[in-house]
Amino acid sequence: MDRPRRLLIASPPGERWLLGLSGERLVRVEIERLRTPDRVGEVHAARVTAIARGLGGAFVALGDGAEAFLPAEEADPERPEAGPIRPIETCVREGELVIVRIVRAAMGGKGLRASRRGVVGVGLASAPAGPALIAAPPPRAVSLLAEEPDVAEVLCDDVALLPALRAARPDLGERIRLHTRPTPLLDPGLERDVEALAEPTIVLPGGLTLHVTMAPGATVIDVDLAGGSDRAAASRRREDANRLAIAEAARQIILRNLGGVILLDLASLPSRRGAREALARAMAQALAGDPLGARVLGVSRAGLLEIVRPRVRPPLAELFGTAAAAFRPSATTVALCALRTLWRERLARPAARLRLRVGRTIGEAMAEESEALARTELLTGRPVSWQVDPALAPFAWMIEDARDA
What we know:
Number of strands: 22
Strand content: 25-35%
Distance between the termini: 52 Å
Radius of gyration: 24 Å
Structural class: alpha+beta
Largest sheet: 6 strands, mixed
Strand order of the largest sheet: 12-13-14-15-17-16
Helix content: 25-40%
């Protein structure tokens, strides 16, 4: 897989978009919702509230009232990698105060996951008397830059981030630059490319289509090859299609941040000896260098190429809205899109008196985004004028010039 050589860090209202590019091709995408961070990397003094032997772990309470699950394999701070897992009741006891780090965001209907392993430099002697946040993680832009050693250039539109970015990668020096052009760093073309990653269908050349279906237990990527010809030509075409599908599926897995069990249903599996193993090797090569370390398990008896990838942060489809066969953006996603569009329109038409009219559901989401509204006003130098219009559909919005109203 291609690793990012260039990193764009764009801060539109309410969000931070982290876009890794190899040439002009997107190879990594992460988006932070600033009002609702995913909390990965936080270090807490947490209270053990319940031992859940049936689930193989314990529940712990954080200082803000949130709850996290501490699995037995993460409850023993002394356990070496791949070492034996002790029963949860021998690792912690109910009512005990423990130091944990959040290692998985809440996603897919499941809550935060915590670990006692790898928490260095913090002991109970210096911890508070009760549940509390001990250390916040660095901005995701900073930690992502540290994870990507091949990045040779960074362009950022938030001057406040520059010192931390340069501290994380002092080797880059002045190649970590501030975006100073009047047009936004996040252009509409890039925005469309990223938003397309929430859609379940990917159309490729030559009649090849990938269908991504996300379910609670697994994600299935189905490969559909249209058309046909004589048997020999069709066989060669399927092999070419499968090679292309494997490369694109690996790219989509990383771009969409898919995790857990992933099943790739190829167009047709060859029957010759060793062919299935060759496909598994091709997928492993395509995923080599994945920052989360995806593993290819092989081809199942049902003919599915099996992959497992750690779940750390929510997939893009879940962040944007509903991760279903027919994607529907959330009200927050639509509201932030409206503010990004208003920002661009004001830069393009500075003399216009632009205002937003939104449907009821978008208005409710907009009212929650006070920081995004303030960011829009900072970026444009003018107050945001918006109103709920009962005549609009609940998820609809429009920008109008008040002089024409």
